[in-house]
């Protein structure tokens, strides 16, 4: 192609491009100064008893779980959760059942409310840890399962 026919970028468009790049850079730098609420919303905090301001005890785990459950519309009461936790694990978040039919099938029940991995994975509540031994994640997943199956953890009076 002859030199006369080659396309030349006018100075105006180069200047506009530079200003656009500078403006974008300035906006990115200004986000932390402006609060960046929408940027921080993209990376939610994992909800545990301590991140929600509760103690790292059975009482705190139940109260934190109830707060998460309220956010997600999962029914249940303190007394219903407490009753089932005491029956299932005596309040030990590291409890594991290595002797029942679930364990014999290779999926032992784990945690405060003795949830097997497939149930935990199916009923996991967003923004809680993906760990069946985490007290808040275990309680909320178990309560989510109980709500779907029995209407509420409050309606569970035996092994479920």
Topology pattern, helix = H, strand = E: HHHHEHEHH
Radius of gyration over alpha carbons? 26 Å
Uncertain spans, ≥5 residues at pLDDT below 50? 24-40
Strand line-up of the largest beta sheet: 1-2
Specify the number of helices.
Answer: 7
Q: Could you say which structural class the secondary elements and strand pairing correspond to? A: mainly alpha
Secondary structure: number of strands? 2
Secondary structure: helix percent = 40-55%
Q: Biggest sheet, in brief? A: 2 strands, antiparallel
How much of the polypeptide forms β-strand, as a percent range?
under 5%
Mean pLDDT: 84
Terminal residue distance: 79 Å
> What shape does the CA trace take?
globular
Characterization of this structure:
- The protein starts with 10 loop residues before the first helix and ends in a 10-residue tail after the last helix.
- The chain is globular, with a radius of gyration of 26 Å.
- Helix 3 packs across helix 7 (135-150) and helix 6 packs across helix 7.
- The protein is mainly α and 160 residues long.
- The longest helix is centred in the first third of the chain and has 24 residues, at 11-34.
- The chain has a two-stranded antiparallel sheet.
- It is built from 7 helices and 2 strands; from the N terminus they run ααααβαβαα.
């Amino acid at each position: 192609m002859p030199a006369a026919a080659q396309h030349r970028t006018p100075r105006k468009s180069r200047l506009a491009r530079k200003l656009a790049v500078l403006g974008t850079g300035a906006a990115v730098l200004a986000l932390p100064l402006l609060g960046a609420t929408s940027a921080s919303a993209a990376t939610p905090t994992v909800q545990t008893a301590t991140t929600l301001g509760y103690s790292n005890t059975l009482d705190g785990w139940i109260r934190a779980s109830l707060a998460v459950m309220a956010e997600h519309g999962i029914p249940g009461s303190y007394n219903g959760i407490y009753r089932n936790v005491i029956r299932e694990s005596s309040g030990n978040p590291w409890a594991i059942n290595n002797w029942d039919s679930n364990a014999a099938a290779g999926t032992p029940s784990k945690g405060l409310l003795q949830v097997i991995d497939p149930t935990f994975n199916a009923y996991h509540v967003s923004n809680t840890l993906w760990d069946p031994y985490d007290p808040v994640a275990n309680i909320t997943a178990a309560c989510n399962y109980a709500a779907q199956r029995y209407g509420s953890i409050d309606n569970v009076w035996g092994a479920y």
